[in-house]
Amino acid sequence: MLFGGRSGEHEVSRKSAASILANLGPAYRVTEVLIGRDGQWHVDGVPVRFADALDVLADQNVVFPALHGPYGEDGTVQAVLEWIGVPYVGNGVLASAAGMDKAVTKTLLAADGLRIAAGVTLRTGEHPTPADQERLGLPVFVKPARAGSSLGVSRVDAWWQLPEALSVARMFDSKVLIEPAVNGREVDVAVLEHPDGRVEAGPPLEITVTGAGFFDYDAKYGGGARFQIPADLPASTTEALQDRAIRAFHALGCRGLIRVDFFLPDGGEPVVNEVNTFPGFTSASQYPQIWERAGIGYAELLDILIAGAVKGRSGRSAVPGGVPR
Fold first, then answer.
1. Which of 2, 15, 202, 315 has its CA at a distance of 20 to 30 angstroms from the CA of residue 268?
2. DSSP tally for the chain: helices H, then strands E
3. Is 154 annotated in the active site?
4. Which residues of this UniProt protein bind Mg(2+) 1 (predicted)?
5. 7, 9, 13, 73: which one is catalytic?
């Protein structure tokens, strides 16, 4: 179990890992590898050198990287695991990196014909032009391009609020998106790849925010939202959402799992808001809850993901000789 990390989602990762460990069956013997906020690696609670941590990881049958955000969900750790030739749960380097960057995600999904929210991408020192502001309209959401859990996200209802919103977003990433608010219901769809290669979308989950203006960090982890599974939708709309979620899975080259978050305008084509290549995995998180409602309990879900990781690696060549020195 690999968890923790240097991102702002360190605590979320620890909570995901705790839930996973609590639901693993007795057949598994687990080694816990924690990455501290400072980058220090720990094996079963003992600080170790990075090289020693790699030796431990390389000796495992499979690694479950329960990591969220930069330095974990963005392909960084996945590249290390590929390098040492150990099977691991979830998405590979490319899908993880692309899925972490909201601007890249939107480009890839749009190229596959999926509807995405319009927006402007800003890099260091850049600001939206008057033409951008006119095209976007108000309100808009300002968000870091490469952060999760709604960290650094602000709603802007007047343009004088924009400089502060940009400053907040740039605390988490130098690359920032400005997107117009999309009027519509907020619906998530979980996608799961089974060990036989079958890709399945679960029942849609609708989010209703009860204590905040939008589904921000506090709403996600402080009980300020209510989930309805399945969402009260016509069968045709449910099928469309599931179809688009599976298309997003393939467009990004995913494996194992993904959660696709949509806005659903009245009578319109679903709009992909963003994706999560390793969504929250606490017992209260959307992804496990969706599959629980579909008849796949938490323990069985873990079995499916682990079996898929091991089977997927069996058809690929491992790095000979273990960790290079």
1. 202
2. 11, 15
3. no
4. 261, 274
5. 9
pLDDT for 21? 98
3-state DSSP: the chain helix, strand, coil percent, rounded to 5?
Answer: 35, 20, 45
Annotated binding site for ATP: 102, 141-143, 149-150, 179-186, 273-274
Catalytic residue check, 206: no
Map residue 51 onto helix, strand or coil.
helix
Which listed residue (13, 19, 154, 285) is catalytic? 285
- Please confirm whether the linkage preceding 230 is cis (ω < 30° from 0): yes
Task: For residue 149, indicate whether it is catalytic.
Answer: yes
With b for 16 or more beta-carbon neighbours within 10 A and e for fewer, the 93-118 pattern comes to: bebbbbbbbbbbbbebbeeeebebbe
Q: What are the pLDDT digits (tens) for 29-78? A: 999 999 999 999 999 999 999 999 999 999 999 999 999 988 899 999 99
Triad 38, 62, 66: Cα angle to 5°: 40
Whether residue 213 has pLDDT greater than 80: no
Rounded distance between C-alpha atoms, residue 40 and residue 173, angstroms? 22
pTM over the 0.85 mark: yes
Q: Which amino acid would we find at residue 242?
A: Q
